[in-house]
What we know:
5 helices, four-stranded antiparallel sheet, alpha+beta, single chain, 23% strand
Amino acid sequence: MREFTLHVLPSPDGHYGVEVRQRLNGRQGPQEYTVVRAWGTPFQVAVSQILEALRRSGYRAGDLHRGRKAPFVLKEEWGVRVALLLMALKPLRKTSRMERIADAIAEMSDEECYYWFSKCVKTNRPYSALRALRVLLAGEH
């Protein structure tokens, strides 16, 4: 089982973003690495799904705030979903496209999320997989 944590990243301008980390058990013991960081518009578009992931992982929506120091431990399926969502949204600029992608990811089954997550983090060409996912979900090139 993979463990995902969500960390709050405060910014100097008074806002905040988030970072999703994954902990894997390797030959040399557990290793943690950053999957994705997001703030600004991509974070704002994803916040409703992030709050749902927190609720499903045993937290309250009010627990997510700029001053939080302790990481949230997410259930695996919700960690995968949030990481995939933020990876897909992060480089985009058009809010309408971000919203279409976010809605489509919200409708995905857990199996689809796991499939795309593995394509986006475990391949030699993760950007190609992310681009394919965006084209599939948003219908744009």
